[in-house]
Amino acid sequence: MLEKVVVDLASLNIVSISPMLIAIIGALAILCIDLVTKNLNKSFYTILTILFILVDLGAVIGYKGEVRGFFDVMLIDGISILSQSIILIASALFIPLALSTKRFHEFTYPEFFALFLFMISGFQFMISTDNLILIFVGLETASLSLYTLIALHNRMKSFEAAIKYFTMGAFAAGFYSFGCMILYALTGSVELNGIFSVLSERQFEPMILVLTALIFLIGAFGFKLSIVPFHTWTPDVYEGSSAALAGYMSIVPKVAGFVVIMRIFEFFVASGIVWLEYVLYAFVVITMTLANILALVQEDVKRMLAFSSISHAGFVLAGILIGTTQSNSALFIYWIMFLFTNLGAFTMLWVSRHKNAIFHNRFDHPYTKFAGMIKIMPVGAVIMGVFMLSLAGVPPFSLFWGKMYMLSSAVNAGYIGLALIMALNSAIAAYYYLKLIVYMFLKEPVENDHTIYIKNASNPLKTIIGFSAIVTIFSIFIMNPLIEIATKYVEISGF
Could you tell me the mean pLDDT of each successive run of 10 residues in the chain, 495 residues long? Predict the structure, then answer.
């Protein structure tokens, strides 16, 4: 006889997946609208997407339910709420970049906006669970959508970028699957809490298999986070993508990836597995240092910013290694500060992009393109200079405070040597950021035409640049509230 199974809707806690459902419903709504009404203006889909993102954000911030939900696979803790909020705010700031003056054809497709919302839902699932299977589902949902968004940009380089990203993503998915398979074979569980409990009872024996699983997982998330030596796809993919999407990729996927590795690896580091601590230490130092060295020799600003984002990922990975409440709070503070600065920098590149008027045969944004910008477009030169100084960690701009808080967490945890290496790398990075400032302020213009910098500008893009600049310049006034909020949500999660 088959027993009747009754599901208690109250205990099911459907509200826990409501933010993801809002994004999915929004994507399906856009596809259905396109089926009924053709050739709607891209502004309509842009505004509709922003509305769904804001409703999604409201559902995240306003959530008051149980920590567990939906057959206990959802985990809505402080880390989840904080990281979802960062992702949704970044997404809401990114999508208006579709409202450019020039009609780049990816933004004319309703599918672009639907895929964008599917991607957001994938990231939300990733960071709102401790179930290895659901993490994988969210990871692949977001990744497959992102591959397609890259390919939609109307250039041969975009197809190349999408293929490279897809290939590397396939390797990452394989590594992740193997790592999870080993952990399941060892513990009989796909829940992180269950895995940690069983491994702790066994004192992490057999150690060789535990370390093998961790190696596969490090490889998987090394690809996603552009950690050296898994970073090789990053500059080419950023170069082939639109500047707008490259800026988005430098922020949102990495926030989601860092939350997942925070949930997985900090337990093992805290449990005293010295080998893992040494490996993470090496990844932090090599990623920061090598990325900075490679950025020094770049001729294109977008490729320089790609290597810059790799270096920043290494800087933030130190927070996982340190593993204290302060370092975990610093991780989120750093990405919030990085969000506005990097968004502004890539948007400055986006407003100078043109479909037909190509400045350089090889690069879209070579340094020479910005030579003498102060004489042609002084306001734009000053704003771009502010973003570069912030990325370099020059006070009082936003990323200086993020770096200082991360360095403070390293010193307080006893990682004095690591803090010195991080400070040294910040000094090295200042050179290639200042290189662009030298071109803008001290070089003679190659082409005395101010339209080269604003070919793709529109009021929405100018508004986003202005907003990013304001936050970058006056971030000191919001640091204390941000630290309090981040610390509160991290402590709620038990990190």
Answer: 57 84 94 85 87 94 84 89 94 86 70 92 94 93 90 76 87 93 92 90 87 91 89 86 87 92 86 85 93 90 91 92 91 92 89 61 76 86 92 90 93 93 92 91 74 72 90 92 92 78
Bridge partners of residue 75, in order along the sequence = 68
CA torsion through residues 11, 14, 15, 16, sign: positive
β-strands 74-75, 68-69: how paired? antiparallel
**205 CB contacts (<8 Å, ≥6 apart)?**
none
Distance separating alpha carbons of residues 67 and 80, to the nearest angstrom: 10
Burial of 206 (0-12, 13-18, 19+ CB in 10 A): exposed
Please compute Rg for the chain using Cα positions. 22
What the block records as the tokens of 179 is 């790592």
- DSSP, collapsed to helix, strand or coil, labels residue 300 as strand
64, 169, 391 from 124: Cα distances, Å:
17, 18, 27
Report the distance separating Cα 34 and Cα 111, nearest Å.
Answer: 9
In contact, 399 and 390? CB cutoff 8 Å = yes
Q: Extract the runs of DSSP E, i.e. beta strands, from 294-342.
A: none
35 within 8 A of 84, measured Cβ to Cβ: no
User: How far is 151 from 338, CA to CA, in rounded Å?
Assistant: 26
Phi then psi for residue 366, to 5 deg, are -65, 160
Spell out the domain ranges in the chain: 12-492
C-alpha to C-alpha distance for 342 and 313, rounded to whole angstroms: 13
DSSP string, 51-88: HHHHHHHHHHHT--S-SEETTTTEE--HHHHHHHHHHH
Per-residue DSSP letter, 445: P
**Look-up of token digits 């190659």:** 446
DSSP for residue 13: T
Give the Cα separation of 478 and 488 in Å (integer). Answer: 16
Q: Where are the alpha helices (DSSP H) in 17-61?
A: 18-36, 42-61
Q: Which of 206, 151, 154, 164 is nearest to 182 (CA)?
A: 206
Query: What's the confidence (pLDDT) of residue 461?
Result: 84
Enter the tokens of residue 200: 């702790």
- Alpha carbon separation from 279 to 266, 293, 317, 402, 494 (Å, rounded): 13, 21, 12, 24, 24
219-233 burial, b at 16+ Cβ within 10 Å, e below that, comes to: bbbbbbbbbbebbeb
Using CA atoms, how far residue 11 sits from 15, 63, 71, 132, 289, in Å, is 11, 16, 8, 22, 49
Helix%, strand%, coil% for the chain, nearest 5? 75, 0, 20
What pLDDT sits at residue 137? 94
Predicted pLDDT of residue 186: 92
Tokens describing residue 366: 């070579």
